[in-house]
């Protein structure tokens, strides 16, 4: 009797569009990257395809003979924006601008678009979130009206590509990539498949036409860019626009940049008349008081490669009942501030156990690097002793649990910026000046412990 054999039917599998995680059963959430709605069905048995070599249009050349003029960056006219981009926009480059709603992304790009148009280049601004009349009103408010700035309100990808074909712009701005949809792909606008298709089509036409492209991107609740992770890999530059809703200060950072550095930071002032670059924003973070006040200390923080002066203010209230003392901070990491307060209490004998302590930054700036530890400690000690730190003094350094002051990076650059703004004294960790040279007109005190720093700040006697 012949044996019967049954052919096995290939079962379909499922794969995450974000990270490539595979599973035999469908799941609403990826088990690897924990993204929702990214698991898609893939075919059962993969087919092997062979690509036939095609005719080469242009032979490969020695690298030294490649023309680099086509990759020269053209300035946008917004100096702080150009600083972050690495000099301007490269023809064919695709820049993704991400940020929270209301932070000022559209205002910045509209201002840059008008300046590019004023330089003689054609700009196509595609708005998919607002009507053309709304964008026109904003442009009138910030003074961004120009004849070479073209405006279109479209949400269909094919229509957007038609506008590009007809107007042949030098710069294309799409606001935003999550609200444009393609009729060739299933799903609503903003979905993983739609964002991948829209971004891929715009990137292809940008490379073919050597057309610089700016894409506005939404962010999720945790601050990451909405859509597939491959979106960040496809574009050339990823910029993050940050800022508190109740503050006028806006910071622009380059998370990824194929044409320039990723440690530059652009500073902007968002007001009723538009957005203005701040080449010297240190004045926003330092209060102007006629007399020295106890509980304040100036430090220099590095935002990328840019030194910024910031003021820390501390207030220590009267004694409370045991166990009810509060620790309140604004603009600083709460856990790190609690650690510095514990070091001050244990190593310096500062009475803080039963006293409410408040530490805040001026101007709403956020300070996260360890170099502000010494300024926090001196500000709190100054508030407790009611002794103001001498005017014209800055302090920077990381404080360890043993009470030592550790070295931080970029000390010469920080001191040069403080000296340029008129500060005459600095308290820094020991060994910070390798060459032993201090900026002209500045006295630098190198300290090894927190107790030495308090002596140099004239908070305690030797």
TrEMBL record:
Gene3D superfamilies: 3.30.230.10, P-loop containing nucleotide triphosphate hydrolases
RecA family profile domain sequence ranges: 70-219
PROSITE patterns recorded: RECA_2
Any one GO biological process: recombinational repair
Signal peptide (UniProt feature, chain positions): none
GO cellular component: cytosol
SMART domains the UniProt entry points to: AAA (SM00382)
Record Pfam families: AAA_25 (PF13481), ChlI (PF13541), Zn_ribbon_LapB (PF18073)
InterPro entries (alphabetical): AAA+_ATPase, DNA_repair_RadA, P-loop_NTPase, RecA_ATP-bd, Ribosomal_Su5_D2-typ_SF, Ribsml_uS5_D2-typ_fold_subgr, Rubredoxin_2
Keyword Cell membrane listed: no
Source organism superkingdom: Bacteria
Record bears the keyword Repeat: no
Binding site for ATP: 99-106
Keyword set, alphabetical order: ATP-binding, DNA damage, DNA repair, DNA-binding, Hydrolase, Metal-binding, Methyltransferase, Nucleotide-binding, Stress response, Transferase, Zinc, Zinc-finger
Region annotated Lon-protease-like, chain positions: 356-462
Short sequence motif named RadA KNRFG motif, residue ranges: 256-260
GO molecular function: ATP binding; ATP-dependent DNA damage sensor activity; damaged DNA binding; hydrolase activity; methyltransferase activity; zinc ion binding
UniProt record similarity statement: Belongs to the RecA family. RadA subfamily.
NCBIfam families: sms
Domain writeup: The middle region has homology to RecA with ATPase motifs including the RadA KNRFG motif, while the C-terminus is homologous to Lon protease.
Cited function: Plays a role in repairing double-strand DNA breaks, probably involving stabilizing or processing branched DNA or blocked replication forks. DNA-dependent ATPase involved in processing of recombination intermediates, plays a role in repairing DNA breaks. Stimulates the branch migration of RecA-mediated strand transfer reactions, allowing the 3' invading strand to extend heteroduplex DNA faster. Binds ssDNA in the presence of ADP but not other nucleotides, has ATPase activity that is stimulated by ssDNA and various branched DNA structures, but inhibited by SSB. Does not have RecA's homology-searching function.
UniProt xrefs under HAMAP family: RadA_bact
Name of the molecule in the record: DNA repair protein RadA
Origin species: Kineococcus radiotolerans (strain ATCC BAA-149 / DSM 14245 / SRS30216)
Organism phylogeny: Bacteria, Bacillati, Actinomycetota, Actinomycetes, Kineosporiales
Name of encoding gene: radA
């Amino acid at each position: 009797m012949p044996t019967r054999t049954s052919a096995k039917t290939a079962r379909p599998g499922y794969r995450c569009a974000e990270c490539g995680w595979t599973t035999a059963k469908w799941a609403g959430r990826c088990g690897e990257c924990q993204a929702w709605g990214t698991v898609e069905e893939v075919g059962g048995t993969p087919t092997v395809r062979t690509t036939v070599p095609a005719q080469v249009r242009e032979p490969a050349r020695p690298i030294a003979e490649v023309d680099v003029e086509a990759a020269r960056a053209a300035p946008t006219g917004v100096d702080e924006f150009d600083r972050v981009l690495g000099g301007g926009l490269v023809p064919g480059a695709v820049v993704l601008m991400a940020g929270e709603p209301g932070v000022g992304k559209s205002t910045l790009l509209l201002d840059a678009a008008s300046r590019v148009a004023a330089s003689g280049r054609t700009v196509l601004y595609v708005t998919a979130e607002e009507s053309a009349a709304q964008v026109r009103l904003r442009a009138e408010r910030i003074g961004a009206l120009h004849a070479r700035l073209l405006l279109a309100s479209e949400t269909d990808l094919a229509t957007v590509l038609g506008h590009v074909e007809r107007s042949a712009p030098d710069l294309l701005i799409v606001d935003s990539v999550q609200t444009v949809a393609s009729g060739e792909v299933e799903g609503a606008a903003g979905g993983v498949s739609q964002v991948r298709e829209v971004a891929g089509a715009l990137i292809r036409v940008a490379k073919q036409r050597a057309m610089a492209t700016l894409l506005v991107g939404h962010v999720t609740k945790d601050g990451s860019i909405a859509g597939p992770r491959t979106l960040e890999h496809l574009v050339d530059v990823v910029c993050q626009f940050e800022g508190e809703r109740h503050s006028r200060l806006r910071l622009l950072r380059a998370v990824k940049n194929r044409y320039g550095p990723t440690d530059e930071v652009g500073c902007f002032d968002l007001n009723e008349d538009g957005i203005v670059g701040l080449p010297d924003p240190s004045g926003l973070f330092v209060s102007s008081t006629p007399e020295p006040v106890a509980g304040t200390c100036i430090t220099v923080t590095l935002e990328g490669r840019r030194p910024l002066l910031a003021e820390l203010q501390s207030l220590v209230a009267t004694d409370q009942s045991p166990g009810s003392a509060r620790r309140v901070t604004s603009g600083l990491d709460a856990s790190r501030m609690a650690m510095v307060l514990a070091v001050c209490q244990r190593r310096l004998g500062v009475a803080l156990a039963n006293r409410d302590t408040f530490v805040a930054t001026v101007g709403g700036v956020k300070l996260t690097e360890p170099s502000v530890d010494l300024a926090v400690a001196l500000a709190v000690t100054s508030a407790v002793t009611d002794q103001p730190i001498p005017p014209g003094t800055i302090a920077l350094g990381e404080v360890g649990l043993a009470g030592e002051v550790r070295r931080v990076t970029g000390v010469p650059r920080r001191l040069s910026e403080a000296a340029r703004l008129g500060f005459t004294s600095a308290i820094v960790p020991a060994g910070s000046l390798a060459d032993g040279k201090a900026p002209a007109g500045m006295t630098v005190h190198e300290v090894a412990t927190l107790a030495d720093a308090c002596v140099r700040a004239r908070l305690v006697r030797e």
